[in-house]
Write a structure and sequence with these properties.
This protein has helices at residues 12-24, 67-74, 76-88, 95-101, and strands spanning 3-8, 30-35. With 119 residues, it is α+β, with helices and mostly antiparallel strands. Helix 1 (12-24) links the parallel strand 1 and strand 2 (30-35). The longest helix has 13 residues, at 12-24. The relative contact order is 0.14.
């Protein structure tokens, strides 16, 4: 039997719902529809969209984020990905942030537990 799930909005909660649905229903057939009124909000909703969050930062340091997110950011390969993305996208204007938060000798964050990441 196939189930149909509709997720209204693809903000932080919508993404989390989708993630949990996938994780908990790996062997079941699901038909998932996502309704979002503005495609430019993908992924993460208005607060995390590229258009609206260019100069914003998470309100809390990484240490009080979800364990999955903390683990992801702590992996060196993901820090390299983030730093490369921030450096490549000059329009984000994160040069000063990178100077304050990246090690000079390596593509790694100085204090990844207390870091306030750009959104």
């Amino acid at each position: 039997m196939q189930k149909h799930v509709v997720i209204s909005g693809f903000g932080v909660i919508g993404i989390e719902v989708l993630d949990q649905l996938i994780k908990k229903n790996k062997k079941k057939k699901l038909k998932i529809s996502i309704i979002e009124k503005d495609f430019s909000n993908f992924p993460g909703g208005i607060a995390y969209s590229e258009k609206n969050s260019k100069y914003g930062f998470f309100n809390n340091p990484l240490r009080i984020s979800s364990s999955e997110f903390k683990d992801w950011v702590q992996r060196e390969k993901n820090q390299i990905r983030l730093i490369d993305y921030f450096q490549f996208n000059k329009d984000l204007k994160l040069e000063k942030w990178l100077k304050n938060n990246k090690l000079k000798t390596r593509k790694k964050f100085k204090n990844s537990k207390e870091i306030y990441l750009p959104r």
